[in-house]
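We modelled the chain as a single entity of 536 amino acids. Its sequence is:
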Amino acid sequence: MCIPLQKTDTQREARPIQYTSIALAALLIALGNIASRILGLGRTATIAYFFGRSTDVDAFTAAWTAPRTLYDMLINGAVSAALVPVFSEYAEGDQTAFWHLVTRVLNLLLLLLCLIVALMIWQAPLVASLLVQESEPALRQQTTELLRWLLPSVLFMGLSALMTAVLYARRTFLLPAFAGATFNAGVILGAVLLHDQMGIQSLAVGTLLGGIGQVALQSPGLRDMRYRPVLDLRHPALRRIVFLYAPVTLGIGFSIIGTMIDRRLASGFTNALSTMEYATTLIQFPLGLIAAAVSLAVLPTLSRQSATADEAAFRQTLGMGLKVVMLLVIPATAGLLVLAHPITAVLFERRAFSAQDTAITATALLFYLPGLPAAALDQVLIFAFYARKNTLTPNLVQGAAIALYLLTVLPLLLWTRLGFLALVLGNSAQWIGHALLLWWLLRRKVPIRGLRMGEALLKIVFASTLMAGAILSIIYGMQALPTELPIQRPLIEIGIAGGVGALLYLGVCMLLRVEALDYFLTTLKQRLNRSRAQAD
């Protein structure tokens, strides 16, 4: 791996160690995300199996928007923007002071969540009226009922997210990496066991089981926690957390407005909410597997490098994070593009989910794909700003991205017959606009020249194009196969064409000496050799 701007021997030794630490952290998070995303696909497939594309799923999708938004506003955004950076600094010092801070944040968080959840349960009809159009009274009523079932799970999700922040700050990645998988397993369990007795409400029970499971999973990682039932708002770190997090609320506020508009517009199209949810699940798989793993792995390192004003190391870490995301998300986008229909069919097409449902969902997936690479890179860019204690800029950009969504959607709804697909294109335009604007702003603060980003992008796009062409050629050649096969044709297409395409992509990247791949293969080889030496 070529690293410019080398300085002292200590720095030359420290940076490979930092990269190796990031690689191992990313690997652990990726393993957890693999389990989480696989179970997430299983969760969505379970919903499709029992409920299909139906009004019940539309109501659940609309209702789930409220607790998910509450979680994002009070917890999820705070983890990366404020809690991990501040906790990371305290975790390096006196452990008594660290646990005092954690317990104060925990007590404040639980108090806020209890108050807000109680208020939203009381005002569930008002919340539902914001998400569902007046022209759909039955859908609105069902959404109201599901809201009251779903909101209590936010208490456990919030507690779990705080545990995740604490463990990440202490560089403990294993338990929180599998928290998402535990949540998805809970939803599946609730649906499988209770769908006959409770119908769509079984999913709400499953979310509660998933939240409780997340807390139980991570509890062993906090066994040395020194809890104190104290609510101290004067703690200086609390003020820093609020200072860092306050701008995030602005961005999340923009996101809430955008989500409410999106859900409300989609509720006017039959089964649009459920279709978009199924397609979004397929988009979220590579996002969670790739972007989230890399972003969360580099955040603590970027935070420490920013705190010590080591700009050269910050540039190198940021550049490597972006290159790794490109290495993985661009071929994933190309693969989803050429395999959209067979992937949708294999995952969802059974029982209540028909072949027509597969065709409509696959079409929605295609309209989401232009924004996938941008959304993945965007997460790393956001975390780069957060590591520099700048939480305002990414969230101001979110307002501009919502405006771009509206500028895309409204003309398409008025002047085309795309229907709900106009909303999908609007989401893609929003992701692309946010990433481009954030990249432009970051380049003004962090010099990117010399990191060979353009070279890496060209190599990866070239290899991905060859991969997509090979997959399409193999699928075309497989049309000669007999109609009756012992297993589904889509499964054969994914297994053979997708497998050959993936191997071709890997081979081309190795021939082109793509830097991110070369680095990780070298790191893996070194660790294997080290393990063999220790065994000997």
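As a brief sanity check on the tokenised model: The chain is about 80% helix and 0% strand. Confidence is low (pLDDT under 50) at residues 1-17.
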